[in-house]
Amino acid sequence: MTSKRSQPELKPKPLDALVVLAVVLLAVGAAWLSYGGKGEGALTATVKHRGQVVAQVELSSLTEEKAVSIDGAYHLTITLDKTGAAVTDSDCPGQDCVHTGRITRAGQSIVCLPEQVIVTLEGKTPSADVILG
């Protein structure tokens, strides 16, 4: 005697398509809010030397590259443009500030410890990679 279990037939119904459409629309809406719906606003570059603000520039207002020179025990040249900031020249040992490269998002920074220079980008909503605490 063999018993054959019957499997229920699964047939899509018209309301199933409506549920799938609602789920897809919710997913697209959530992705848009997370990634595209929140603009960072205008980025502002702040350059501090030994704790004092040397320059504060709204990057969207720049029509061409702007160079900020820092002279102290070491010389640094910071280049600002519409897209971000970078230390393009430095005679400090190690040149970690030059090797950091270009920063383009709110919350990023470049630090030159020997000359105590900090370049930060600030915007309306920081794009943090990780938040601790």
Describe the structure.
Helices cover 20% and strands 32% of the residues. With 133 residues, it is α+β, with helices and mostly antiparallel strands. The chain has a domain at 44-122: Sandwich (mini-chromosome maintenance (MCM) complex, domain 2), CATH 2.60.320.10. Strand 3 (66-71) and strand 4 (75-81) form a beta hairpin. The chain starts with 13 loop residues before the first helix and ends in an 11-residue tail after the last strand.
Break the fold down into its secondary structure elements and pairings.
Blueprint: H1 14-36, E1 44-49, E2 52-58, E3 66-71, E4 75-81, E5 84-90, H2 96-99, E6 109-112, E7 117-122
Q: Segments where pLDDT lies below 50 for 5+ residues?
A: none
Tell me which CATH architecture of the domain at 44-122 applies here. Answer: Sandwich
Radius of gyration: 26 Å
Strand order of the largest sheet: 2-1-7-6
- What is the element string, with H for helices and E for strands? HEEEEEHEE
Q: Could you report the average pLDDT, rounded to the nearest whole number?
A: 84
Q: How is the main sheet built?
A: 4 strands, antiparallel
N→C terminal distance: 66 Å
Q: How many DSSP H or I helices? A: 2
Q: What's the CATH class of the domain at 44-122, please?
A: Mainly Beta
